[in-house]
Amino acid sequence: MTAAHPDPIRSWLDANLDQVIAWRREIHANPELSRAEFATTAKIVDVLTGAGLTPQVLPRGTGVVCDFGPADRPRIGLRGDIDALPVPERTGLPFSSRVDNVSHACGHDAHTAMLMGAGCLLAGLDDLPFSVRLIFQAAEEVMPGGALDAIDAGVTDGLSRIFALHCDPHLPVGTVGLRTGALTSAADWIEVRLHGPGGHTSRPHLTTDLVYAMGAMITGLPGVLARRVDPRSGTVMGWGAAHAGDAPNAIPQEGTLRGTVRTGDHTVWGDLEPLVRSIVGELAGPIGVGYDLTYVRGVPPVVNDEHSIGMLRRAVNNIDPAAEVDTPQSPGGEDFAWYLDHVPGAMARLGVWSGLGEHFDLHQPNFDLDERAIGVGVATLAGVVLGGELDLEIPAVPAN
Prior knowledge:
The chain has 9 helices and 16 strands. It is of the alpha/beta class. The strands form 4 sheets. An 8-stranded mixed beta sheet has the order 1-2-4-3-5-16-6-15. It has a 4-stranded antiparallel beta sheet with strand order 10-12-8-13, covered by helices on one side. The protein is elongated, with a radius of gyration of 23 Å.
């Protein structure tokens, strides 16, 4: 699909889209893990400086903030995340990751390139309807997220609204998924370390059967939790790691379980930690096993503001009235939610699936995106700035 971009967006993309794609490929080939995005940060600064802007590196040394536009007008924030994942790449692309076991398997390379493109496009225009703040955020992939570092550095100060895009391999290229209300889920991390005296597997009655206790915890915690919260909240608990013992005839003294707890309900999220702690104790008690529970609060749900979605809708419809699609709430977490605790805004999902071949999801080694989506992303980010007044009612949009 070739999007019909309105001028001045279309004219800028006609002249510069190949350069934006080249930026994406350079960043893709040189991925950097969370809070180590030094070369990516330097690239962003170089590009924005070349466009006549004055970017500033954030205090931790990675990530960039850049303000421009009329100072007497409301300021819109546009956020892109810049870090990669500790995931090997198996796409076979000519610009595949050059770093062993590190890759942009979540599309942050595209997020970064699209935001650089939108910034350069907007910087070349006179009399913008809004002031603009570009936020290139580090460390989205680690909980509770680098958004908190950026907020501590003041990136939400003075903003009227904030917007972001995230690649979505479930949506076809040329589409943008919009949803008012909760878009993602809260995501917390837990570790349960079980301990007992150990013993012989032939005499479990003379000791504490730690592996049996682990099994009870593995099945019991998700099951009991599901019956202690409203099922409409979209709460789900899953284990990702279980380790204990080596010998088949010895009950070990220690075992470790690690997993995540997710919910789509902000109120339920606030109650999850004490509830999980209570259930773990209830499950461990009858077996007599000791335990230590580490509960790490992750990120709240991304909850899209209705008016901000209206602004995104206008931008997307200006690209193509058929580009807007509905999108469901995801059980995944996203630290863009922290910005929304400080300023209203919205995140949209950018369709990146080509429709051909096997369908690979985010965080998989084979994940790739259709680069035609990059122009749609630049047009959406720039379009939300160029599209209209902040304080009006949600604008009427063309019928899809």
